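Dear H.,

Thanks for agreeing to be a second pair of eyes. The structure we're designing against is below in token form, covering all 290 positions.
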């Protein structure tokens, strides 16, 4: 009977270990599938953004070509219908200014699109980092919980085995005492039995108390380790997010400064072109008057 009980306990331990291993494998497979799906979604988003930007750039180029063709047609019509060179120069100045303004607007739109792409890519990177960190935390917590369950199961099984052994010892002692009862006086035998039972009960109580204290200490140590691991991971996540945020802010500031410099340079170029054109007009008008 005792051998059967021990075999049953060993079979239960093996079954529990197999179940825990299967659960860990299933959890790891699910996490890997989730990560692959997230990566595929992010790649699809990036491809869609790139396609949209290419379409926008093509549309802008087509609009520029159409505007240039319209302006050339207007200049040809004006040059054929009007003989006044001053009016032609004036209309040419207006057309050049319109073209420059259109180019400035297109440059600003392209820069805004580039900033949006950078921001979207950075946000996607942050999401990937956060997802990976969360998955790591979940895996650690699951493993720790499984370890705790295994430890508790093993401890319980050990307690059961100890109790069974103690019961066997009690039975053996009782048999020995019964044999001694035949030889020794009944009163002495009763006293001895009582003393032995008391001692055995005390030993059992002491063993159970020691086992309970060991279990409590193990659980406290495991909980402290889990808390420390979670705190370290949270600190790492906060540091990573702060660093990424600082990098984004620096990139946006640099891009804004570049946009402002480009706009100032374009405005200066426009002013210089207008001044040159006005001076050219005045020279032409004076030559005509002369």
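And this is the sequence the design step returned. I haven't edited it by hand at all.
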């Amino acid at each position: 009977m005792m051998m059967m009980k021990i075999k049953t306990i060993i079979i239960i331990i093996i079954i529990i270990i197999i179940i825990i291993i299967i659960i860990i494998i299933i959890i790891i497979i699910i996490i890997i599938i989730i990560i692959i799906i997230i990566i595929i979604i992010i790649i699809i988003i990036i491809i869609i953004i790139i396609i949209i930007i290419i379409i926008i750039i093509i549309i802008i180029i087509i609009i520029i070509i159409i505007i240039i063709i319209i302006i050339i047609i207007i200049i040809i019509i004006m040059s054929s219908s009007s003989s006044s060179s001053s009016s032609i120069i004036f209309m040419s100045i207006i057309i050049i200014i319109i073209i420059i303004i259109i180019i400035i607007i297109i440059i600003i739109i392209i820069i805004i699109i580039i900033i949006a792409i950078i921001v979207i890519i950075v946000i996607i990177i942050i999401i990937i980092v956060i997802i990976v960190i969360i998955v790591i935390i979940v895996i650690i917590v699951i493993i720790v919980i499984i370890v705790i369950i295994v430890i508790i199961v093993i401890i319980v099984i050990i307690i059961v085995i100890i109790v069974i052994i103690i019961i066997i010892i009690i039975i053996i002692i009782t048999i020995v005492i019964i044999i001694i009862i035949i030889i020794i006086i009944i009163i002495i035998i009763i006293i001895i039995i009582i003393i032995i039972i008391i001692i055995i009960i005390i030993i059992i109580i002491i063993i159970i108390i020691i086992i309970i204290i060991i279990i409590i200490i193990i659980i406290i140590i495991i909980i402290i380790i889990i808390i420390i691991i979670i705190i370290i991971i949270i600190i790492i996540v906060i540091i990573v997010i702060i660093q990424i945020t600082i990098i984004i802010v620096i990139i946006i500031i640099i891009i804004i400064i570049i946009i402002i410099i480009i706009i100032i340079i374009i405005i200066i170029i426009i002013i210089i072109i207008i001044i040159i054109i006005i001076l050219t007009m005045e020279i032409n008008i004076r030559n005509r008057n002369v």
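Two observations from my side: The chain has a mean pLDDT of 75. The CA atoms of residues 1 and 7 lie 10 Å apart.

Warmly,
E.
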